[in-house]
Each structure stands twice: as C-alpha cells, then as structure tokens.
Amino acid sequence: MTEKQKILDTVEVEKILKLLPHRYPFLLVDRVIDYQLGEHLTAIKNVTFNEPHFTGHFPSHPVMPGVLIIEAMAQASGILSRLAIGELQDEDDIFYLVKVDKAKFMQTVVPGDQLHLHVSIKRKMRNMVKYV
C-alpha cells in the first residue's frame, strides 16, 4: 500500500473517548467511518430525540442547533489531529476551535437524522490547523 492510498478504518466510541475530552451530553461524534491520517476524516453523529437540547429547541418542532453541528465538525477535526499525535495525556491536553468561516446550514437536522461529518486538512501553520 502506498502512502497516498486510502485507509478504510473505523474508530469506535471507546477509542474516541481516548482522543477527545468531551463526554455526555457534549460528545457529538459516534463513530469514525473513514480516514486518511493527516489528510481527511469522515465521522457520523446519530441524532436522537433523547438529546437534551431538543427539550427547548424547539419543544413542538425539535431542531438541532447549528452551533452543535459546528461543534460536531470541530470534534471530528480534533479526532483527525489526535489520530496523528496520540491519545489525550491529561485534561489540559486539548485543542480549541478558534474560528469558523462561511458556515451555511442547508437544511434542518432533526431527531432520526444521521450527520456525516467530512473534514479535511487544508493548511497547517505553527500550532494550528485549518480544516475544510
């Protein structure tokens, strides 16, 4: 297998818990279904009615808040970075989302949906990574 060939591999929630500091109710990635180390990753988030934000957003017509969709993308990006550098060492060993450019929500996300979170590394600069 050459270095550029695609790695078809999954990362289950047990491994995700070792890569991210997030826990219920803010762990927003259920599984990684595909990645190429240092390049891109696809994860899924299963959206269920039991999530706490649906009690108030909106009670008669539940919709996943856009900021949580962005957070799910940020967590997928964090997993891609962590796969390259290793598991969390302590609770201070975390990444931060510092900027979001041109986010658009093309449709609502409701209970029963499954989000496919596709992230790719666009550029690395010092201790930051820009994802698309």
Automatic annotation (TrEMBL):
Subcellular location: Cytoplasm
This protein's GO CC annotations: cytoplasm; membrane
Annotated InterPro entries: FabA_FabZ, FabZ, HotDog_dom_sf
Entry keyword Cell cycle: no
GO molecular function, one term: (3R)-hydroxyacyl-[acyl-carrier-protein] dehydratase activity
Keywords: Cytoplasm, Lipid A biosynthesis, Lipid biosynthesis, Lipid metabolism, Lyase
One GO biological process term: lipid A biosynthetic process
EC number of this enzyme: 4.2.1.59
SUPFAM superfamilies according to UniProt: Thioesterase/thiol ester dehydrase-isomerase
Task of the protein: Involved in unsaturated fatty acids biosynthesis. Catalyzes the dehydration of short chain beta-hydroxyacyl-ACPs and long chain saturated and unsaturated beta-hydroxyacyl-ACPs.
Name used for this protein in its record: 3-hydroxyacyl-[acyl-carrier-protein] dehydratase
Naturally occurring in which organism (per UniProt): hydrothermal vent metagenome
